[in-house]
Structures are given as structure tokens and as C-alpha cells.
Amino acid sequence: MHAVAFDMDGLMFDTERLYVKAFDYAGEKVGIGPAGYMVIRTLGMNDGMWKQCFREKFGESYDEAGLLKYSDEFIADYYTGSHVPVKKGLFRLLEFLKEKKFRLAVASSSPYSTVVHHLEDAKILEYFDVIVTGDMVANSKPSPDIYVRACELLKEAPRDCYALEDSPGGIRSAHDAGLKAILVPDLWQPTAEYAGVYYKKCNDLDEVRDFLETQI
Description:
By secondary structure, the chain is an alpha/beta fold. Helix content is 47%, strand content 12%. The radius of gyration is 17 Å and the shape is globular.
């Protein structure tokens, strides 16, 4: 195995809980009630896909612009006084992988600008050889496009790459692209139907490091 592709939200950064709070706040503001539970339902989707899910749930006429405005305000207020919350074991895992000469990619459904902001804020941008985001491919997760493109840019065969994921769409995307998908659950816990989709399950990124060490 020569490369590892990382999801971002919920995998490298503890951002999904922040998004839940932001959409609870924004949903109350626009009159649809706390909407944070929809964040969990749409984990791993790009902007277009999760917005469509919200329209199907709340109707085409709900105040989407207001929801985005208030959620963005909530998140911006948080980041005014705080850094992006980093998941346990991330720095140790990145150091280990670079020491072992793995090539690294980010494969995230989030927009490119958001991904780069978070990586720069955590001072880990330099670790990654490739960044592929939801606004760079025709179809975001659970389509395999993001991981297929990441492997192309890494110049590695998918079978020689691990993918680290926390969401159902992400696990499906990586598996269907031919990578060995390692599941590190965050807000979502896998159901029986995913047992044959992920290659390995780890409780956190420290466990991922320990597992990969046994594979070298």
C-alpha cells in the first residue's frame, strides 16, 4: 500500500457537531425548528446534494437563503475565537505516514476553499500531496468520482490506497472506487448492510495508526 486518502469533516476535524449546532440555530431562526438532525442524514454530500435533501424535507419554498445565512453566521462566530477542532490522533497519524513515505490526499465533499482553510488553520496543508473536493468532480459522494480522481492525481492504483472515512456515503464512495476503506465512526454508526463495504473499523485515528503499522 502506497497512499492514504483522508475525508475531512468528522474524520480529521470535529466539525460535524458544530454543523449540527449551527443548523439547529438557523432552523429556529427561519421557522422550521432545529434542523441539525438533517446534517447527520446528509453526511458526506456536497452542497448541491444536501440542499436538495433539505428542500425535499422542508418544501421548495422554505427559506434556504436564511438557513444558510444564519448557519454561516453561527460558524463564523465560532471561528472568530476558536480554531478548527482537530480529531484525536490526527497529528500523530500524519507524522507516521510521512515518515513511512506514504503519499497523502484529501478527498472531501466540502468546497475547496473550506478544505484549504481548515488545513491551513490546523497547519497541516503541507502534509498533503493532492486535494480533491466536491466542487472539482461531476458527482460527489457516494459516487466514487472523488476517490477515483484522487488516485489519478496520486498516480496510484486504487487497490494500493487506503481511504479513511466516517460517513456512509464516504465509505460507499471509497469502496466503489476500489480503495480499502477504513471506517472511523463519528456521528454515524454503521449498520449491518455496511459490514462488507468497509475494510477495517477503528475507533479513532490512533487506532488507524496502530493498524497501519501492522500492515507495513
